[in-house]
Amino acid sequence: MPRLEQYNWIFAIGTLFAMLDAYNNGANDVANSWATSVSSRSVSYRQAMILGTIFEMVGAIAVGARTADTIKNGIIPTSAFRGDAGVQMLAFTCALAAASSWVMWCTRHSAHVSSTYSLVSAVAGVGVATVGASQVQWGWNHGKGLGAIFAGLGMAPAISAAFGAIIFMLIKLIVHVRANPTRWAVWTSPFFFLVAATICTLSIVYKGSPSLGLAKKPKTYIVAVTMGTGAGVCLLSALFFVPYVHAKVIKKDYTLRWYHVFLGPLLFKRPAPVDADKAAVPNYNVVQEDEEAEQPNVENYEAKLDIGSPAITPATPFTLVNGERPSGDKQTLGSESQELSYKERMAQNEAKFHAKLRQKRGPLGWAMRTLHENPMGPGQIYEIKNMKTLAKRIPAMIVCGALYGVNYDIHAAQSGVHGTPEGDRMAAVYAHAPKYSNEVEHTYSFIQVLTACTASFAHGANDIGNSVGPWAVIYSAWSSGDAAKSKAPVPVWQLAVLSGMISIGLITYGYNIMKVMGNKITYHSPSRGCSMEMGAALTVLIFSQYSLPVSTSMCITGATVGVGLCNGTWRAVNWQRIGLLGLAWIMTIPIAGTLGGVSMGVLLNTPHFSS
Questions:
Q1: Residue 271 DSSP class
Q2: How many domains does the chain have?
Q3: What is the reported pTM?
């Protein structure tokens, strides 16, 4: 059949919302995954952006096509559309619109939700509006129905919590409780390289990308390749990583550079510096206090970067008289005689950060200064003065939208502002977590880079199906002129485009979720962080191999709680944050489903004229 030219508008809108859904996936779910690494200070925020982009795309393109089939065909059977390609295109377009709108609203308000369950719920709602509740696969449906998918709502966090706790307890018993934990950390590190490399290889080889045909290979071949790759990485880490980290944390050779890793065993003979006792590894302890003695001037500064709204002066210490600020109040920001409200303290903290950005060189500094120096004036937007101002602000807004997230101070925002209720609550949580030596944590910071990349690879393999499944249905129906077949292949270019959008979402807007995750659940450190990420990666890959979409965010959250409980007390976990997360997850199901069903019902039954 010919291409459905009359439905070009549906295809265009569906493509737009598929890309928006992938963008929100990166800003919400992927940001949550990398929050663990950034919280542990194993990687910087910019390093997380680079590594996340690479491994998300590799995971999505290599093994992402299989998971797409579940969302595409397991919830609404293609036979229910009775061959009407137009209705099928509209149904999945509405599902993408509902899911992406809900996730974007939540991301804007720093409410972490599951993009997987948003899309699944929206598809179910659309199915009810389109073909009736009887046609929606509510049960198990051979592991592809809603029953199987929503079973992961409880299973995934519990399983990942168990995996994370087991791995961390292994590290704790082998390393942390030893008399000389640093040496134990160095010499046992190849084992964790073995585990991470084996999991990553297994996800590709065992029932991996259909285009590679690796699933058809004999089991002996799969086992040999998987274990061989893991053993090879383990051997390389023993030959190169162990000597390098030995010289760095045991000999305290502060003159060591990254390229010295290639010297391998020769580093054992490298003499330590004479003043090695003065060397120090990075500090991995979470610090809530402001480390700067001086505070930049933030007077009359725009506290929020709100596109299209007038400038907002940040909150500063002042005394309210009858609900108004006295005109003669000249108190400084550092005055301890005045007490700030919670919102005022948060606004002041944000204003300080924005003031630092204004002092930067380059595009972002220029953009922040432009917005600060050109506030919107009184009156409507069509006033000549405001239109001229807006012409100056629009380019700056675009630059800030692209670069603000990369320069965001995640550590300052993530642990809770000191002196606020959130900061006091997190200080109480941190007090119940043992602090291990920085030398040991520094060793695991290298391992966490690998575990973080493995977790990101697992996310790309699993969650790309959220967006590419419906989009593949829309594209197949539009290009062929017929309702998509149940086994319609997912083009690789679609996987590449949407994985790119996931990466863009992580880079530009991921900070909005990352700042409320990680250290706001429990105390983080590299040894804890790699346990969390490995536990989550194991869970995601297990679910992915059975073609069950599972929320990566739920997995990493479950693993975080599991590791937090290994501190020996439930008080080491911020249960208020966990309660808010659980509420957001539960509310996602009815809200996303209702949005999808209502939008589909309205559009499907809109009066129209036939030609």
A1: P
A2: 2
A3: 0.79
